[in-house]
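Pair request: fold both.
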Amino acid sequence: ATLLSACAPAFQQQAVDTSAWGRRYATVDGFQLHYDIIGGKQADGAAAKSTVLYLHGYSGFMNVWEPLARSLADEHRSILVDLPGHGLSDRRQADYSPQGVAHILWGFLDGLGVERVSLVGHSWGASIAAAMILERPDQVEKLVIADGWLYLEQNGMFMDWAQAPGVGEALYQVFYDQQVEYRYALAFHDPERWVDEAVLGPMTRMMERFPGAKASGLAVIRELRGLPKQEARYGEIACPALLVWCREDRISDPHYGERFANEIQAAQLELIGPCGHMPMIEQAARFGALVEGFL
C-alpha cells in the first residue's frame, strides 16, 4: 500500500502560469478555468439570439468546438471552456463528479452575468450538461448532446479496474500516457485520416508541461460512480433537446442515444455516419447544420 501510494499520480498543488498559451481566465471558488468567447452580436449589430456553452469530452480541450462556434458567431454567443482537470484549467483536487463540475460551471456563468444558456455537451460533457439542467432547469433554453456518456453501464473494463484503491493509481501512473493514441484512434471511424502527430503531440506536451492530469483523469472516472442517482432524474429534463449519435461510434453505442431520447421529455434524435465518436470533426458540416438549425 505504501509503494502504491508513493507512485500515485498527484494533483496540481499550486497555481500554474498558463497565460502564454491561454486566452481568458476566470476563478470560481479558487478554481481557475480557461475559456474563450466567440461571437456576441449579429451582423446587423443586434444582440445574439442565444448564449451557448460548449462542454468537451474526457481528456479533451475546448478548441474542439472552435470551428463550430465560429460558424455560428453571426447569431450566437459561444462560450468555450476547458473543463476542470483539462486543457489549461486547474487540475487541483476537487469534486470531479458531473454534479460537482456543473456547480463550478454555474458559478462561472454567474460571474459572466449569463442568466439563460443553451448547452452543447459531448461524451463526458453530456453528463455534465445533464447535471447542469437538473441543478437549474429554468436557466437552460436548449440542450444538444453529441454521443453522450450518460450511464454508468457505459464504463468499460479499464474504468472498472480504476475504481479499486491502489489499482487505479497504478494504472494511471503506468498506462495513461500510452493510452492517448489508443483513445483517439478508437474515437474515429477513419483514424488514419484524423489521428496523427499534429493531434497527439499537443496533448502529450500538455500533460507533460502541466501537473495533475493523471490524478484529475482518475478522479473523473471514479466520480462517475454517482451517475445512477442522476440517471434516475433524467425524466425531469424538459427543455428541447437535440441528440446526435454516430452510427459507427465504438465508445458510446447509439443504443444510449435511443435510451436517453426515451427518458427525457422533448428529444429529437439524429443518427449520422459514417462517423465514430467525434461528429464535430468527422462529420463537421452535417453536425454543424443540425446544431445551427436546432439553435
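--- second member of the pair ---
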Amino acid sequence: GFRSAKIKVGGGIEADRDRVLAVRAAVGEGMQLRIDANAGYSADESIRLAHMVAGANLQLFEQPAPADDLAGMVRVRREGGGVPVMADESVLDHASLLAIIRADAADLVKLKVMKQGGFLRARRMLETASAAGLRVVIGHGFGLGVNTVAEIMMAATSAAVIDGLECVGPLKTCLLYTS
C-alpha cells in the first residue's frame, strides 16, 4: 500500500480544508499527507489554510505562494503553524535553488530530472540542497518513461530524499484530487 499521498489545493480555502480533513479522517494517521497549492494561493491564503488544517498533521505544504514570491514562502514557513514548506515551481535551476536557500524560504525542495535539465544538473542540485540541510522530494507529474527510472535511481543515492517519491506517473493517488 501507499504510505503517502498528495492532495491538490487551491480551489477555495474552505473547500480545501474540508477535503484535507476528510482525507485525513478516511486514511487515519498512518499515512503521510501532503498538500500542493501549485502557486495558486497567496501567502496570506496559505497561512490561513495551514491553520485551518493544523489538526491534519501534514507532512508538507508544496508551493504555498507564487513561484516568484520567496518572501511569501518565508512568511508561510514562519506563520503557517509549523507545517513544512516545499518549493517546487520556485525551483527552476541552480541559481533559483540558491536563492531559496539564502532566503530560508523552504524546508524541502522538489527536484525533477527533466525540469532541472538532466541527471547531472539535478544531482548537483540535490547535493546543494542536502549540504544546506534541506530535505528533497524527487518526482515529476506524470509518465513512466526514462525520466522515472532516472529519478528513482537518483533518489536512492541520497539520504536527503524523503520517502514517498512522486515519480509514479499514473499510479499517483489521483482519487485524492476530487472533492
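Observation on the second member. The radius of gyration is 15 Å.
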